[in-house]
Structure formats: structure tokens, C-alpha cells
Amino acid sequence: QTNLNAVSTYTYNVLNQAPTFMIDFLRNDELKSAEGIYFMQNTGTAVVGTRDYWGTIRNGKQWGAGFSGAGNNPGYRNANGFTLARGASAFDPNTGIVTSNCGDDYSFGTWAYEVVAVEGQNVGLSKHGGLLNDGCGTGNAWLMTYVQSDARCMDDARRDATVWMR
Q1: Band (77; pLDDT cuts 50, 70, 90)
Q2: Which of 51, 82, 86 is nearest to 66 (CA)?
Q3: Cys-Cys link to 164, which of 19, 22, 40, 126 (CB 3.0-4.6 A)?
Q4: Per-residue pLDDT, 102
Q5: How high is the pLDDT of residue 12?
Q6: Residues 6+ apart with CB under 8 A from 79
């Protein structure tokens, strides 16, 4: 792709809802209880027309609008700007809406962050990308490791998932 940061920008679907990611976390040998179906959907109006979905897959900072409140790890973000939910019943296919069932979830994390040059473009990467990132209080629930200073970078071989976008 010629321009990594200008692909698949935010649009509403036919139900006038933001597109939804469904993540089927098929295998996590490090924490079997984190396996299952998850949904992520943008909410609010602050980012309408500006969401780069390729960017959100790489960079968890693009989902939310700020770091979590006092008492939480400083790298964690709250669900301000998106909904993260677990289980097939969290998504209503008739309305296109994801309903959070994770409570007031402050567990979605961004941790380390770096910018790398790819084909002459600066690309922002969160340590574990932008999907799941320990959300819904699961811990040890991420799909990949991007940050090169982490020994797991490009070597999360014990994790398998299928991701759909609707």
C-alpha cells in the first residue's frame, strides 16, 4: 500500500452505526480464560469522519480520548470513545450496536508506544496493537506485540484470532 495511514477511514454503516470489530480470540496458551468472542465499536462524535481503522489495529491510543483516572496504571485508557464487550450477545445485529458488559472498564491498555518509519511514513504502534489489550479485565489478552524493544515482538506464536469488521 502506498499510504499506510489513509486506508479505511471512518464511515457509518447502513444502520447509521459505527463499524464494529468482532475478534474471535481462538487460542491463548498463556491464559485460556481470555479466549472467546469480543466486540469493539467506536462511540461518540469526536472522531466521526477521522477514524483510520488500520491505525486502530496498530495503535490503541486511537480508540480512546484519554488516560484512565487516578488509581489505575498510567498506561491504561478507559472506554471513553469506544465500547469493548465480551460474548456474542454483546452485539445486536438488528441495530448494529455493541453493548458493554464489562462494567466501567479501565483495563484496556496502551503501555509502551513507538513510532517507526515504514516506506517513508511515520506509523504509530502501541505495544500490543489496538485490539483487546487486556480489556474486559481479562489480563494477558492481546493479539500481537509490535514494540521492538519487547522480546515478544513478532513472536506471539501461542495466540490465534480471527478479526472481522462490519
Answers
A1: low
A2: 82
A3: 22
A4: 80
A5: 56
A6: 64, 100, 102, 105, 106, 108, 135
Sequence-separated (6 or more) residues with CB below 8 Å from residue 124: 55, 58, 59, 61, 62, 113, 114, 115
Question: Which residues on adjacent β-strands are paired with residue 115?
Answer: 124
Report angle CA 165, 121, 126 to the nearest 5 degrees: 55
Cell readout for 147 is 514494540
Backbone angles phi, psi at 57, to 5 degrees: -70, -35
pTM, 2 dp: 0.81
Lowest mean pLDDT, pick from 3-7, 20-24, 137-141: 3-7
Average pLDDT over residues 145-149: 85
In the structure grid, which three cell numbers stand for residue 117, read together? Answer: 518509519
Name the nearest CA neighbour of 126 among 134, 15, 30: 134
